[in-house]
Amino acid sequence: MITKLPIILAAMFGCCLAATQPAQDTRVLPEGFVDAAQRSTHTNNWAVLVDASRFWFNYRHVANVLSIYRSVKRLGIPDSQIILMIADDMACNARNPRPGQVYNNANQHINVYGDDVEVDYRGYEVTVENFVRLLTGRTQNGTARSKKLLSDAGSNVLIYLTGHGGDGFLKFQDSEEITSQELADGIQQMWEKKRYNELFFMVDTCQAASLYEKFTSPNVLAVASSLVGEDSLSHHVDPSIGVYMIDRYTYYALEFLEKVQPFSKRTIGEFLQVCPKRVCISTVGVRKDLYRRDPHKVPITDFFGAIRPTRVSTDRINVTLANEDDFITTDELVVMKPFKIVIEPQFPTEFFK
Amino acid sequence: MGQPGCPTAGPRPRPCGIALFLLALIPLTVASSAKSPLGRDDERFDEELVVRPLSGDHVNTYFQFTTRWHFGHKDNLYHTQLTPRVIAELLQQFDVKELHIGLTQGLWRYETWGYPIVEATSGAEMWAWFSGDNNLTDSEVNSQWSQLANVFSGVLCASLNFVDKTNSISPRHLLRPQFMPAANRKNFVRYSALPREIVCTENLTPWKKLLPCGSASGFASLLNSGHVHNTKYHSLGLKVRTLCEDNSEDNCIVELTQTANLVYDLRLFEQSSSSSSNGDFSLRRLFGMGLNGYCELAESSKMYVQRNEQGERYQLVPPPSPENEEVRSTRGGHTAIYGVYDMHEQFKDHGERLFNVAWLAPKSENRRRNMVKPTPPPLTVHRYLLGHGQERGRIATEITNSHYDALPILVQEVIPWYVHGYLHTLSVRKKPQRVNEYGRQRIPFKLLHYKPGKQRELPSHLEIGFLLPGQTSALITIDVDYLLLKWLEYPPDANHGHYIGSALVSSQLPMGRNYTALPVEGYLFRDSFNATRPSYVLSLHTEALIVSLPTPDFSMPYNVICLACTVVALAFGPIHSVATKMIIVGKPTTTTPKNFIKKLLNKVFRRGGQPAAEGAGKGAGTGAGDGEESREGAAGDAPPGESELPGTGHLDDQPLLEDLEEND
């Protein structure tokens, strides 16, 4: 016992040394940022954004999911790493008086649809099966690359779900539902397959907190727009289109995210308090017990942006150059011989003689 | 320079040196290849914009972006420049030789707008030709076809991954390859249409990303989602074809043609703007902004503005380029005049500015009367559903030939598996154009190809050919049954109905009136100028149809359950009581008062005092038994369980009814 103690002490001391060592390398950066960034352990960011409800009167759910899409895209996650699932077409819906545009506000402040949206799963493709396949990486053979979640053990994944939910389930397209158990199993499978480093689970639906209750996987931070037994409410109606524009929780979340810049020091902790009960009417539920970091020290860009922790090195680094064969050989530029193009007759006249 | 980056005193010093040498070499070679005409001839990109005013205050704007790469041998496909990499990879991965994809919203009105430059049907449409050596089998092509659809579902953000064997056919006669099939190679074709597919910004964005300049500059910068989707008709097209010399695979050209065909309704613009603009329009009004320049990678960047027919009445500001101001194209006896704006000229000596062209209509009050009446196209098609109910119907396709001479017609129908067609009911009847009713006169088939469908597996595929006499309409009808789907086969919005894709009609016109399509060997819009040919192959699409299949109504089983339960309950009570109770004849205990008022009071108090639970607990069984015992003839006003009189069979129902009333 007595002989072991100094060793343990030494080990602890060593740990402390190791922890303080990298901080010295990056003194030039603002200290707060460095503090937080050093704790970030991810190398890339992915976002899975799902609107699970169909039909025009669910316009608000599409506005919800597009609000988050707009924010993550603006903060730097490229379209190739955002999987956007939208169950119905609102922008080009015949009932939309402003084709190609979806707003979050009756005053048309922000066109959340934008000019360059890329929807990966749309319409009938938005099913529970496809969603679970996407999360667990068990997509069918031949699925396009843009429809796959190609995350790895270094990925911070943001999952956002919106739609009509109940205690323990979320409806997809009014025809099927995903249960909280299925969701928890899917995330557990993601963890086992090393498909995420940290996962931020956001859900805006009625009784949303019931969806994260069954989670057991580590490194998951979950936030829900309402507790079990509560309804999530919509924000306001636009009389010109006759439907509700957006849900309360996402409305305030977007309001917060609009103020975030890629290098801002806002934290996830602040984001979790974005919609107090006085404005949301429902109580925002947070589940932190699976998450090892303090949300108040996690920059919001860990999930909503694509800022990687970088370390400036002044040391010499060895880089192995590629083999000669890999270079493009330019001496093969041969002049193409022009030829006469012959094309088969485009109409089978032989039948009409 | 570069020494710190090199591995110092490593075992392999040579690669570093060679790499440095190559690094120094690459900028030189790139620069020289860009300058030399040889390198440029191999690959070229052209952008074109055609503006054609149509009748009825419509304007057709047609964008065409063409990349043509003479790549030679297949191995060269690994190094792409202007051609998008996905297209080059496509040719390496699959045996695909030719590919067409169309994403369209809206319906092209042939009667008033004439024929479009590229044909498309509402929704998504896709067909491809595969060409391989003799080992290529049909099932391999099927798997390649679905993989191809999956690739483009990702590339274009469309649900093309729904293309599978349940909605794909192999057209036999109508779709011809745009190459010369070789004798030693096997060719396969697959066709599929998804009429339900919507087209929105998410399709336009990736479509623009395939262009060499993206949407940053050139004509593509005009395609902004808000202004594209504000149109009456918009169609995005993508066509890839490979042309090889004499079937040798060593000297080939790949052509990628991206088209965007839009039709604007000027009356909508007038409504939205406060000032009455008298039918004027400009690039800025159509697209929301002027043109910011040309794509620097484009060999040519030209805008063609039609000056005759509907375009005749407009004055152009600024007028077209002074040299080669107008192109006069005579094609098959039909003349079109185009004003040309060369963007390389327009942006030659000006700095930063936006280029805009305005079309000014004459300021006369009755301009609608001044408009040139459109010449109707020689061949028009329509399609509709006949019959009523959700069980069976009839698909009718009407083809009208207003030309004076007979035209050969080919029709291709794809009937989805949930609609069952009957070949023996197929008929083609005709009528002169002026007559309203179709008579019994039939048109004989010149060719008939029918591949019956299979439930949940294959669509029915029908191709017919006949000769349609001049000034005559033909009505093609086929009777169909609608299938009852399984529970899980209904889409989430089954109320919307199910689609039957449009029919494809092809013909060969002897003259070029209204004909604007590119000649098959050409690849730019300007190749259609003065392209007189002996005949012009026309291809048209009919409207798509929606059928409402019999949808199960879940209120029906609910009603059935309620009714059945009631009937069972009504029957169970008497049967149970008859089966289980013994009827004992006994003397009535005379507790009933003789006095009428007392009798009444007694009755009232007994009823009021009866606990509710007793009434509810008295099910059909015991209640009936009690009532039976308590009956005194038909009067039945004695409280139950007091009088014991012999019950008679025919009274069984009545007490039961009384009990039921009490429970309510």
Largest sheet of chain A: 7 strands, mixed
Number of DSSP helical runs of chain B: 16
Question: If strands are numbered along the chain, what order do they take across the biggest sheet of chain A?
Answer: 3-2-1-4-8-9-12
> What is the domain tally of chain B?
3
Q: How would you describe the shape of chain B?
A: elongated
What is the CATH first-level class name of chain A?
A: Alpha Beta
Polypeptide structure, described:
The complex is a heterodimer of chains A (353) and B (664). With 353 residues, chain A is α/β, with parallel strands linked by helices. Chain A has helices at 4-25, 31-39, 59-74, 128-136, 180-192, 248-258, 268-272, 277-280, 301-304; strands at residues 44-51, 82-86, 121-122, 155-162, 165-166, 169-172, 176-179, 198-204, 220-224, 234-238, 243-247, 285-287. In chain A, helix 3 packs parallel to helix 6 (248-258). Chain A starts with a helix and ends in a 49-residue tail after the last helix. With 664 residues, chain B is of the alpha+beta class. Chain B is built from 16 helices and 26 strands. Chain B has an eleven-stranded mixed sheet. In chain B, strands 15, 16, 18, 19 and 22 form a five-stranded antiparallel sheet that branches. In chain B, helix 15 packs across helix 16 (653-663). Chains A and B meet through loops of A and helix 1, helix 2, strand 2, helix 5 and helix 6 of B.
Provide a brief overview of the structure.
The complex is a heterodimer of chains A (353) and B (664). With 353 residues, chain A is of the alpha/beta class. Chain A has helices at residues 4-25, 31-39, 59-74, 128-136, 180-192, 248-258, 268-272, 277-280, 301-304; strands at residues 44-51, 82-86, 121-122, 155-162, 165-166, 169-172, 176-179, 198-204, 220-224, 234-238, 243-247, 285-287.
